[in-house]
Amino acid sequence: MDALNPTPVRRSEQLGEEIEERIVTGVYPPGMRLDEQELAAAFGVSRTPIREALIQLASIGLVDIRPRRGATVPEMSADRLCEMFEVMAELESMCGRLAARRILPAELARLRDAHQACEEARDAGKPDLYYQLNEVFHRRIYEASHNGFLAEQATALHRRLRPYRRLQLRVRNRMQSSFSEHAGIVEAIVAGDGEQAASLLRAHVVVQGERFTDLVATLRQMNAPAEPEAATAQ
Amino acid sequence: MDALNPTPVRRSEQLGEEIEERIVTGVYPPGMRLDEQELAAAFGVSRTPIREALIQLASIGLVDIRPRRGATVPEMSADRLCEMFEVMAELESMCGRLAARRILPAELARLRDAHQACEEARDAGKPDLYYQLNEVFHRRIYEASHNGFLAEQATALHRRLRPYRRLQLRVRNRMQSSFSEHAGIVEAIVAGDGEQAASLLRAHVVVQGERFTDLVATLRQMNAPAEPEAATAQ
DNA sequence: GAGATTAATCTTGTATACACAAACAAAACT
DNA sequence: AGTTTTGTTTGTGTATACAAGATTAATCTC
Question: What is the ipTM of this complex?
């Protein structure tokens, strides 16, 4: 059916994902002005689908649209990021608590697979691969919560925090400790100990938010190479 | 008035809020088709701002847009609603935990004011007023969490669940017990007992989700007055 | 008479055109 | 010389026109 359907999705939706990707990977860095005409030209479409994509991204907080001022990539302050990590920790924690009680055998098997895959990436010393498999691991937990809405929320926020998490895996050699924490989480879920899973997961994520000052410093060097202005709220 | 219109906000944003209001209040019931042309005519604008409003609402899950099929108000299944309440409970809980630790004297005073206002509404036996003041009470807690992102998320979800919560306050005489629970929550926050505030708030919200079957039944009578079809997933 | 296929109509998705507001720059006046 | 005002330019916001897909109805065939 997919083969017969060449374009079953809105163009603006595809564009939205592409722009989101570029924002999230830092191709469009925080503070960058997103000119509709430029984007339209760059993607070879008219302004309309670009506008729709930007509006969509704006409503999930990934771009900032101000009337008659245009769209920009929002500058996420360190405070803001801390707040988001705080919420992320709680969502993950909740997923873990529910998963410990509700996970099905098949799901547990897949969770273990994901965990093992992480181990191999760690042993091979591949942070990029680990990062990717780490995402799968967490997604498995989201799904095992058997709360579709929660899983969606967690996935969305996880995605928004992606670039910062990624940086952190590099800055410090966190692969090792991350993997150990995963092991404890799996154990708690296997044991059906919701509270244990919850608190381990919270700690697992909070760590990422706490060791954060260095991260922000690192990030500031990388993402803001040529920005002498922007002295508003730094 | 359109000529003098000094509005510094996008038209589509205003439209979005208006449409959101109508969805949330049941004027546009679940399953309803949202024809762009009809809406454009109804609001006296062209299709463009309507489209933008719908896309915005779609990205927060308030309408369902399917390519080449148009927009509809999503039918929220009972399962889905339970899931959302489950997440809401956790967000509120988190707000309470943080608020207990971080609330400032001035904020505490305002929280008490809101609580007292609820009491008066209860004594006067005005559920609609109570409902409104209840929102203020909860918003005060969100703010006191000193996590702006969390407060935004909680507010957004609270808003989406509004119609269901409102119904419930009517169906059972929950005003009394709701108020008692509020009292305990305030007490825990005053005492700085984060865990206590968290668990009380979780229970406070979960109750709304649990006594839910009757609610859905009631709701079905009210919101679906003329819908003989729609036998998809009921 | 029933089912399938085709055509017509309706609605969405995209493009283009136009209008208005804001920011920047230049010139004139204090 | 500095400040203010006005004009120009750029870019957003809305409208309209056009194209493509989906649905429905009608007609034709079995």
Answer: 0.82
